[in-house]
Amino acid sequence: MPLLNTTPRRPPRERRDTLRLTLCVVGRLRAGPERSLIDDYLLRFDRTGRALGLGPISVREVEDRKGGGMAAEAILLERSLPKGATVIALDERGKIKTSPDFAADLARYRDDGRSDLAFIIGGADGIDPSLRAKCAASLSVGKMVWPHMLLRVMLTEQLYRAASILAGAPYHRV
After folding, report:
1. Is the model's pLDDT at 133 over the cut of 60?
2. 22, 39, 166, 167: which has the fewest C-beta neighbours closer than 10 Å?
3. CB within 8 A of 163, min separation 6: which ones?
């Protein structure tokens, strides 16, 4: 009579795809309060998002040193995008979302099997219309125009907030 294997079997691990995020931005951020805030939110996101299949976040800064304006910035931004990434433009003409809706969008991108999601932030003049037209979506943080360096802080905070919402953490309160 064959021996039965009585070793308890572990349940199969749930496969969770990871959604890598990239911030493709115009301008170089120097040391200062904005850098400190961004670094803090990126670290928080990494700690919270990793268990959720979100992250890491990488930041790719581009700078047009020849003064070519939005068109030149668009070329540099496009080159900085991860190959095959779903691209979202941060733009004043974009859709305004609540934080829970933004969190649900991130989860949907992850659950749909996307591997890369990139956010683009243009320079002082915004994002060239030709690049904006190539984006899967356009997101706005409100009807006001914000300096692009502050927009980085706001985006990283919202990414951390989204991860917190998805994790059920108490950071986001309604």
Report:
1. yes
2. 39
3. 44, 45, 48, 49, 52, 54, 55, 103, 106
- The answer to whether 131 and 78 are in contact (CB under 8 A) is yes
- Strands, sheet with 86-96, edge to edge from the N-terminal-most edge strand: 54-62, 19-26, 116-121, 86-96, 137-140
Range of the domain at 38: 19-166
Whole-angstrom Cα distance, residue 90 to residue 40?
21
Cα-flanking dihedrals φ and ψ of residue 25, to 5°?
A: -135, 150
Determine the Cα–Cα distance for residues 40 and 15; give it in Å rounded to an integer. Answer: 29
For residue 1, is it within any domain? no
Dihedral sign of CA atoms 172, 111, 47, 38 in order = negative
User: pLDDT tens across 91-114, in order?
Assistant: 999 999 999 999 999 999 999 999
Q: What is the CATH number of the domain that holds 132?
A: 3.40.1280.10
In sequence order, what are the residues at sequence separation of 6 or more whose Cβ sits closer than 8 angstroms to the Cβ of residue 20? 55, 56, 57, 58, 82, 115, 116, 117
pLDDT band at 13 (very low <50, low <70, confident <90, very high): very low
Return mean pLDDT, the chain: 91
